[in-house]
Amino acid sequence: MKLSQLEPGQSGIIKEFTDLEMSIKLMEMGCLPGESIVVERIAPLGDPMAITVSGYSLSLRKHEASTIIMQ
Questions:
Q1: DSSP state letters, the chain
Q2: pTM of the full predicted structure?
Q3: Which of 24, 8, 13, 10 is nearest to 69 (CA)?
Q4: Residue (of 69, 68, 56) closest to 26 by Cα position
């Protein structure tokens, strides 16, 4: 399942990334394999989404979230 498919309140653990270039950017922001992610809210039009990872809030676009594969 991809992070972009989760609904607010759902959580998961990062398994891997599908885009090498995007994965570097995401890992620099704390989205590392094995980290737990909680979807806090999604904007009314579906983009962006607010998540909590590594103890802080982060906002991601749908295309960014779709590169994160969850366990």
A1: -BGGGPPTT-EEEEEEES-HHHHHHHHHTT--TT-EEEEEEE-TTS-SEEEEETTEEEEE-HHHHTTEEE-
A2: 0.87
A3: 13
A4: 68
Q: How far apart (Å, rounded) are the C-alpha atoms in residues 45 and 11?
A: 21
pLDDT tens, position by position, 11-68: 999 999 998 899 999 999 888 999 999 999 999 988 899 999 988 899 999 999 999 9
Break the chain into its structural domains and give their ranges. 3-70
Both tokens assigned to 51: 């998540």
Q: Rounded CA gap, 18 and 10, in Å?
A: 21
Q: Which CATH architecture has domain 3-70?
A: Roll (2.30)
